[in-house]
């Protein structure tokens, strides 16, 4: 459990520990968010959570701002397939095209 | 959970490198997420129980402001707007 | 100490993290991250120039 400032003061390696884990994040006002943790922005400590759909396609994403994070709890581990889906997320064709010129 | 303490960078180049890799992997994922939000409908949960929808444009890199269009405010639509990140608790969207 | 300095670096003011600082934070990936950040910032600046968005709400919800 973290106080808001404690979460922001974690090190990148502490945050990395949560990547690809299923987590429950409590935000300001006791708002709860559950999902697979895709990443933590090392600059703002914002948490990107993904709720994967049944199909290979659709998913929803929620981002909790680092300054509003009150608590992060691990509630599950990703299997290999889930971890793969999580790491390929947001790697759109458009971006690849732009990156590769 | 117990997390092993991060060793001091500088004291050990290998651990500094591990730290840098972790930071850049997570930052890259975050930036790609921001980029993928362009033109998507985003729901913002803000302080004071304010909830608004808008079409995302871009964010500045230090994430101090979100530039959005067609912001559905409680008193009507604001065609072009900047939302202060400090006012936001969370935001969500569909991929 | 040195460690606290490193941990605090990402929270510095915009524009303060450049070159050597990026290298220190991101190591061999510094150029890639910097390029992505620059592209994002450019699209933010361009949109703001073109659309002239105004702050909403006018008064910050949280001071």
Summarize the model shown:
The complex is a heterotrimer of chains A (101), B (95) and C (63). Chain A has helices spanning 4-8, 12-16, 80-88, 93-99, and strands spanning 21-27, 32-40, 47-52, 59-64, 69-77.
Could you name the key traits of this structure?
heterotrimer, B: 95 residues, alpha+beta, SH3 type barrels, five-stranded antiparallel β-sheet, 1 helix, 25% helix, elongated, C: 63 residues, mainly alpha, disordered N terminus
Describe the protein's topology.
The complex is a heterotrimer of chains A (101), B (95) and C (63).
Chain A lengths: L3 H5 L3 H5 L4 E7 L4 E9 L6 E6 L6 E6 L4 E9 L2 H9 L4 H7 L2
Antiparallel strand pairs in A: 1-2, 1-5, 2-3, 3-4
Chain B lengths: L12 H24 L4 E6 L4 E9 L5 E9 L2 E9 L3 E7 L1
Antiparallel strand pairs in B: 1-2, 1-5, 2-3, 3-4
Chain C lengths: L1 H7 L11 H7 L3 H22 L2 E2 L8
Distance between the termini of chain C: 31 Å
- The radius of gyration computed from the alpha-carbon positions of chain B, rounded to a whole number of angstroms, is 18 Å
Count of alpha/pi helices of chain B: 1
Number of strand elements of chain B: 5
Structural class of chain B: alpha+beta
CATH topology group of the domain at 34-92 in chain B? SH3 type barrels
Distinct helical segment count of chain C: 3
Largest sheet composition of chain B: 5 strands, antiparallel
Proportion in helices of chain B: 25-40%
What's the order of the H and E elements of chain B? HEEEEE
Shape of chain B: elongated
Average pLDDT confidence of chain C is 82
Uncertain spans of chain C, ≥5 residues at pLDDT below 50? 1-8
User: In what order do the strands lie side by side in the largest sheet of chain B?
Assistant: 4-3-2-1-5
Alpha carbon gap, first and last residue of chain B: 32 Å
């Amino acid at each position: 459990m973290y106080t808001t400032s404690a979460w922001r003061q974690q090190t990148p390696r502490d945050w990395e520990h949560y990547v690809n884990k299923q987590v429950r994040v409590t935000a300001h006002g006791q708002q709860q968010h559950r999902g697979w943790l895709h990443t933590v922005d090392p600059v703002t400590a914002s948490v990107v959570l993904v709720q994967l759909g049944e199909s290979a396609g659709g998913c929803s994403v929620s981002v909790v701002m680092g300054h509003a994070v009150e608590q992060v709890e691990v509630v599950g581990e990703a299997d290999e397939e889930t971890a793969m889906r999580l790491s390929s997320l947001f790697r759109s064709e458009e971006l690849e095209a732009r990156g590769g010129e | 959970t117990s997390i092993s303490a991060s060793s001091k960078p500088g004291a050990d180049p290998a651990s500094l490198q591990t730290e840098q890799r972790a930071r850049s992997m997570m930052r890259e994922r975050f930036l790609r997420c921001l980029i993928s939000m362009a033109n998507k409908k985003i729901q913002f949960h803000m302080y004071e129980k304010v909830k608004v929808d808008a079409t995302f444009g871009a964010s500045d890199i230090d994430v101090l402001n979100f530039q959005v269009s067609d912001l559905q405010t409680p008193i009507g639509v604001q065609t072009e707007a900047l939302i202060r990140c400090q006012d936001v608790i969370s935001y969500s969207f569909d991929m | 100490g040195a460690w606290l300095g490193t941990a605090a670096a990402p929270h510095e003011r915009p524009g303060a993290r450049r070159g050597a600082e990026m290298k220190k934070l991101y190591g061999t990936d510094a150029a890639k991250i910097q390029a992505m950040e620059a592209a994002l910032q450019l699209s933010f600046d361009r949109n703001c120039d073109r659309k002239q968005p105004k702050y909403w709400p006018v008064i910050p919800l949280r001071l």
